[in-house]
Amino acid sequence: MTSLVVVSAGLSNPSSTRLLADRLTAATVEALEDVEVTHVQLRDLAHQLTDHLLTGFAAPELAAAQRAVAEADGVVVVTPVFSASYSGLFKTFFDVLEPGALDGTPVLLGATGGTPRHSLVVEHALRPLFAYLHAIVVPTGVYAATDDFAGTDLDARVTRAAGELAALMGKVSRVDSAVSKRRTVDDELTAPTPFEELLRRASQG
Amino acid sequence: MQFGIFTVGDVTADPTTGRTPTEHERIKATVEIATKAEEIGLDVFATGEHHNPPFIASNPTATLAYIGAKTENIILSTATTLITTTDPVLIAEDYAKIQHLTDGRVDLMMGRGNTGPVYPWFGKDIREGINLAIENYALLRRLWSEDVVNWEGRFRTPLQGYTSTPRPLDGVAPFVWHGSIRSPEIAEQAAYYGDGFFHNHIFWPAGHTQQMVDLYRRRFEHYGHGAYDEAIVGLGGQFFMRKNSQDAVDEFRPYFDNAPVYGHGPSLEDFTEATPLTVGSPQQVLERTLGFRDYVGHYQRQLFLVDHAGLPLKTVLEQLDLLGEILPELRKGMAEGRPANVPDAPTHASLVAAAGGAKDSTVYAEADDVTGSSDREEARA
User: Which residues form the signal peptide (chain A) (predicted)?
Assistant: First the structure.
């Protein structure tokens, strides 16, 4: 079954960030057959994220969320706009994610804010972050200001973005695609690189 | 089964008084802690190596040699020796010298270090950490096992016709452990050579330790050094104990809450649950420690961190007295159910025996010309 993980960084309850995340999720699910959705609400993990910064390891719930993201076939991420960018909580989650976890993973970007003037946050802040993380970012990012929740325009953008994500999830398969993931610590623990190869790399650079 | 302590040599303020010891006090305290470790019957004292404040752990070889002169039995070790930024030529000389001075009471644990700027200070690049650890150690082994070495690598000047002196005591190099928290390559390296593998264990969930030790054991067997349960494993550990467990919690909490590593993060309760840290009665420390075997198997060396987070020397010495009191029970408990094929940690004596006896390994050379003539005269001749 296809797995979709939804990471949302809204702080209030109810939250417009979660609302946008839900709409993006529903539209993606509609476009795909047989998809399993996992929600990761960063508010619930806020303490564990800070602890991870300080201790270097993830407590159980955070570890489970990290695993879900790393194993996902597609990811929806939505952050509120704080001080003209993604929130610190949102960034922290991706700061402590293991390098390579999102390599080649289709990601749909979303952001919410109180005013439409922040709409380019998706392009100027979120997109470079996920390019750095080697994710395959959906062309349409969805920004929703408070006003958008009263209009009909948001629907069209949500549908288009979700359709693009679904298409990527349908076409990009981890196993047979040209996109390869970096080897992780878990990969090494399961199937270690033989020492002769490590020696060869050390001497050749 | 060996028991001991390891120190990172941090100079940390006591959060209950606000007082920070001087470097001199901390250096002298380290020596006192080490001699106390021998007094209570521990087997190993290991010091870290750092080259920046707030640590006094630079020049670990001077510290170990000095402690060696003040002790009779305890094994001197490192936690860790920076195999990445230290020239293996110097490591070979320094630790062979300590072997001679202490009649073989020394072994080493290799590590990469965790402070980025240390690498450039020593002309290295942290991105090459694993490669440095692999190449430098490969050279170190040859310097100890071969009298004359010709060598060329990426990370230091080539060597032609080089003899490292003094030669290892009795023709046997010090035993080497490799320490790593989360780098499978280092467990692979330890397994490849049949060396020991040490997991820091403290500050980390048991799951990390278990995975790394399991990998090391699997590969130790793969490379033909013995069975899975015969690999040489060491673990760290951390405790604070008082006769009454609530006293231990109350006294340690301000140190925990402000500790350099985990302070201002998770609660003491969460952290003791997630990691091997045990704060409580001697009986609780005893039981927790004996439980480590449940996820790593029977192992060879247990080192505790006791002098950290700004604990005053007096408290550290009291902790060691309490450790001394449960030490017989720890030894007895670890011996229970231990299969006969599980070896002890190698010592100088056991390595000499395995090599078929002691050999004088001195490389005798022609008399030098340094005292009789200058290089200029030699060039003219």
Answer: none
Under the banding of pLDDT at 50, 70 and 90, the label for residue A103 is very high
Evaluated on CA atoms A177, A182, A188, A192, the torsion sign reads: positive
Tokens describing residue A42: 């960063």
For tokens 């008084």, name the residue: B17
Note the pTM of the prediction, 2 decimals: 0.87
| Preceding peptide of A99 cis, ω within 30° | no
Q: Which amino acid is at B267?
A: S
CATH of domain A2-204: 3.40.50.360
pLDDT tens digits along A129-150: 999 999 999 999 999 998 888 8
Q: Contact at 8 Å (CB) between B220 and B228?
A: yes
Give which of B18, B26, B91, B87 is closest to B54, Cα–Cα: B26
**Could you tell me the domains of chain B?**
2-380 (3.20.20.30)
**How many angstroms from the chain centroid is the CA of residue A67?**
12
Question: Which residues of chain B have a Cβ shorter than 8 Å from any chain A Cβ?
Answer: 128, 130-132, 134-135, 138, 153-154, 182-185, 187-189, 191-192, 203-205, 208, 211-212, 214-215, 219, 223, 261-266, 270-271, 274
* Reported ipTM: 0.77
